[in-house]
From TrEMBL:
<keyword id="KW-0067">ATP-binding</keyword>
<keyword id="KW-0378">Hydrolase</keyword>
<dbReference type="InterPro" id="IPR036388">
    <property type="entry name" value="WH-like_DNA-bd_sf"/>
</dbReference>
<protein>
    <submittedName>
        <fullName>Helicase</fullName>
    </submittedName>
</protein>
<dbReference type="Pfam" id="PF07515">
    <property type="entry name" value="TraI_2_C"/>
</dbReference>
<feature type="domain" description="Putative conjugal transfer nickase/helicase TraI C-terminal">
    <location>
        <begin position="277"/>
        <end position="391"/>
    </location>
</feature>
<keyword id="KW-0347">Helicase</keyword>
<feature type="region of interest" description="Disordered">
    <location>
        <begin position="252"/>
        <end position="272"/>
    </location>
</feature>
<dbReference type="InterPro" id="IPR011093">
    <property type="entry name" value="TraI_2_C"/>
</dbReference>
<dbReference type="InterPro" id="IPR011119">
    <property type="entry name" value="Unchr_helicase_relaxase_TraI"/>
</dbReference>
<feature type="domain" description="Uncharacterised">
    <location>
        <begin position="35"/>
        <end position="242"/>
    </location>
</feature>
<dbReference type="GO" id="GO:0004386">
    <property type="term" value="F:helicase activity"/>
</dbReference>
<keyword id="KW-0547">Nucleotide-binding</keyword>
<dbReference type="Pfam" id="PF07514">
    <property type="entry name" value="TraI_2"/>
</dbReference>
<dbReference type="InterPro" id="IPR022391">
    <property type="entry name" value="ICE_relaxase_PFGI-1"/>
</dbReference>
<dbReference type="InterPro" id="IPR036390">
    <property type="entry name" value="WH_DNA-bd_sf"/>
</dbReference>
């Protein structure tokens, strides 16, 4: 006799979680079909949707097309299935809850990452929305292989295949032993759920879409960025980490290391009072931006926001810093070299200085002067979550 599952599922540490829906199974294990509105209207799922919206890089219509529609389609295809027989999501609706919770965590974690790793700042600015979307889709669909362990049926005895389609009426399920997990079903469901318009848009960045498709095909550990984001999110949700090879975290917000040979600097300067001159300059820079001593994005500012980075003009900023140090015995060049050893600025192939044009008018037309400076990740300077928009005076040097 088949063992149909009904009632409540195991809860970790006796934790009481809000009911996924107002409609539980009847005594015979039959669940009613619920539409997306009903499934997503409970409080904890509404909070998850709000967090995804707040952390998305899109306008509302684009967010709904690329992010919300896949969630709605996934919801009606999963209904109130549990994610597993035991664990934090072994409850009615646990499979949908796990998908939403991991997606929220992955998106929030990745907002501070520079993506794709190793690309120039202007490329990262152009591609960041694509990579955040790839991370969101990967996190939302990462654990659908568990559907292989579930057999579900309609009241007339026909089989319902969760993930592939919505049930046509009341349904019930049982757990079954499908053997080793295979990614085929998860990949099929993932490909069916991704919006066509979104895939066409993501195709503008071949590396992003190829990484996503490889991830959904089951080769998750071959996709460092997506795999790292999802695994860290799973850990925060109290879930077991996915099988992984040893991979470096590829999205640290500091730049790749510039060698001493590249900088012409043989090691850092001896610390003075426990800090190097580079660290002292850095602390002055951060505090001066915070307290308004250094203005940001004004026509005469030494600091501008460009493409999710802070452009710090050199050598002017170093001379401004030296002006605050009376009787300073250290030269500007030594401070600048010492600052470079901190690796707080973006550098690629030994290139650490970038050129921008500063125009005399807000339309960025007509005459301009060239500025030289460092590109520093925005989140290293603005740490309180409030970040200014791009400067209206600067544009990349063509």
């Amino acid at each position: 006799m088949l063992k149909w599952v009904s009632g409540k599922f195991d809860q970790i540490r006796g934790e009481v979680l809000p009911a996924s829906t107002v409609h539980s199974a009847d005594p015979n294990g039959w669940f009613p079909f619920l539409n997306a509105e009903s499934l997503l209207s409970v409080d904890h799922r509404k909070r998850a949707l709000q967090q995804l919206w707040e952390n998305s890089p899109f306008s509302r219509p684009v967010w709904e097309a690329f992010w919300l529609i896949p969630i709605r389609e996934l919801a009606i295809r999963l209904q109130q299935l549990p994610a597993a027989q035991s664990g934090p999501y072994a409850r009615e609706g646990g499979m949908l809850d796990e998908a939403l919770d991991v997606a929220v965590c992955a998106v929030r974690l990745s907002r501070g990452w520079l993506l794709p790793p190793g690309a120039a700042p202007e490329d990262q600015a152009a591609q960041s929305s694509a990579w955040y979307t790839a991370i969101f889709w990967a996190a939302l669909l990462h654990d659908l292989a568990g559907m292989d362990d579930i057999a579900a049926f309609h009241q007339d005895g026909t089989r319902w295949y969760p993930g592939i389609a919505a049930p046509i009426g009341p349904w019930r399920f049982r757990f079954c032993d499908s053997g080793p997990d295979t990614p085929a079903l998860g990949a099929l469901v993932g490909y069916r759920l991704l919006p066509e318009e979104g895939l066409r848009w993501l195709s503008h960045w071949p590396k992003a879409i190829n990484t996503l498709l490889v991830y959904l095909s089951g080769n998750q550990t071959d996709c460092d960025v997506l795999h790292t984001a999802v695994n860290e999110a799973r850990q925060k949700c109290g879930l077991q980490l996915l099988a992984a090879k040893e991979i470096p975290t590829p999205m640290a917000t500091s730049s790749p290391v510039v060698t001493d040979e590249e900088t012409g600097h043989e090691g850092g300067l001896p610390p003075v009072g426990g800090k190097t001159s580079g660290e002292s300059f850095w602390n002055w820079l951060v505090s001066s931006v915070a307290n308004g001593v250094l203005t940001v994005n004004a026509q005469d500012s030494l600091v501008h926001v460009m493409m999710q980075h802070i452009f710090v003009q050199t050598p002017e900023c170093f001379y401004r810093y030296l002006g605050t140090k009376k009787n300073a015995e250290i030269e500007k060049d030594n401070i600048q070299k010492d600052f470079e050893t901190l690796h707080r600025h973006y550098s690629q192939n030994g290139k650490g200085i970038y050129i921008y044009r500063k125009y005399k008018n807000e339309k960025r037309e007509g005459s301009f002067i060239k500025l030289f400076g460092y590109m520093i990740p925005l989140t290293l300077i603005f740490t309180n979550g409030s970040q200014p928009t791009d400067s209206i005076w600067l544009s990349p040097n063509k």
